[in-house]
Amino acid sequence: MHRYTRGVFALGSALALVACEDGTTTPSATETFEVTIRNVSAVFEFAASGMFTTPAGQAEPGPLLPGGVYEFDFDAAPGMRLSFATMFVQSNDFFYAPDGEGIPLWDDAGQQVTGDVTHLVYLWDAGTEADEEPGLGDTQAPRQAGPDTGASDDDSSVRRAADTFGNLPAVTEVLRVTLHSTGATSFRARIENLSDAGTLATSDGMTHPVPLAPGVWVVHGGPDPLFTEAEADRGEGLEGLAEDGSVAGLAGILGERTGLTSPIAPGVFVVHTTTSLLFHAGMPDAGMGLEALAEDGDPSGLVDALGANPLASESDAFTTPAGASTPAPAFPGEAYVFTFTAEPGDRLSFATMLVQSNDLFFAPAETGIDLFPSGTPLNGDLTGMVLLWDAGTEVNEMPGVGLNQAPRQTGPDTGPDEGGSVRQVNDGYRYPEVGDVIQVTIRPLS
């Protein structure tokens, strides 16, 4: 920790003095504070999710008829996979989807997977409604009196659809699924309906096309985001999708479990009386170490610079989460804790990186936080005084996905230089609210 004695008047503000009864003066009392920066992020299961409801070129949601295409766009980091589900409409509860592992979006060489991935798609039985002959059953969506009208299936497990009636077409006769790259981490998925009037033959001598229904998609790292093979439906909306083409329920559940989960990184704090020693809003980074903190979670350069700055009365890095024995990022539920001493007139500044970003960091306004408002030591929740800043040193990418962000980059300082100014982030991407990622509290110890 770095502690520097102030020179009276030399810093533009005199050391606070208190008059005694005998006419002498003594320095005002100091206070020791403890600050806790806690990662309160929710832990989300999925990186992205959504639904596809409207065929390309159409204005309104509807089924996908022969020749039609559903398309949806998404971003995914290396290691992520794609799952989706869409109803085989001429059935009681059949749907097309990959298996529980999903479709790999990146190959072993770190390249995006593109092209035809239909071979990874299967026809599934949701196990929620008794099966009738595909294309003829009177409790199937095209003919039923209302949703959820069929009898329960004797086998409630989700399983590969059995060709009980001998008329199920091959997957490749009904649809084609392709992946296309639209950017370094961006994809477009296309689901084409390849069926025609003769694809599904029924026992009454007729033939039919096979419409597909609106569906859901999800980008995931772990297995079985939509169902688990050989286990019963989870009751989260797959039944509505597989029986009636109703996607809102399952899409809503996926949406609740989708978001950005981010560690926060080791950071720095500084006690000061002048304006900010960390950055000046609207100005380029001063090159004292903020760039390394904001891009790579490395506070060493900045804390050294602060330690050599006579305007900093006290400064140090916080690097080790409470209860840990070695420096590390603070994951959800973990916290950094640090203490310092200060006196009336002092202000506190600090900075910690949002790890799932290129160069974003949490910090108060550039002037810092008054530690003795109205002369009383500050005590309580400071989160409302914390902002999410963009250091302006590296071009921003989709949060949680970018290849030049710390969890995925090949080495420190690898992203394209932005040459911008330090500012509150406003780049068109969606970020969680500050209070949904960190909570900052302070308490005087005396």
Report on this model:
The chain has helices at residues 171-174, 238-244, 248-256, 290-296, 300-307; strands spanning 2-3, 17-19, 25-27, 31-39, 46-52, 69-75, 81-87, 94-97, 103-104, 115-116, 122-125, 159-160, 175-181, 186-193, 200-201, 207-208, 215-220, 267-272, 312-318, 335-342, 347-353, 360-364, 369-370, 380-381, 386-390, 423-424, 438-444. By secondary structure, the protein is mainly β. A hairpin with a 5-residue loop joins β15 and β16 (207-208). The longest helix has 9 residues, at 248-256. It starts with a strand and ends with a strand. 43% of the residues are buried. Residues 1-27 have low confidence and may be disordered.
Helix content: under 10%
Distance between the termini: 20 Å
Radius of gyration: 29 Å
Tell me, what's the shape? elongated
Kindly report the average pLDDT value.
93
Main sheet overview: 8 strands, antiparallel
How many separate helices? 5
Number of strands: 27
- What is the chains' assembly state? single chain
Uncertain residue ranges: 1-27
SS-based class: mainly beta
Strand residues, percent: 25-35%
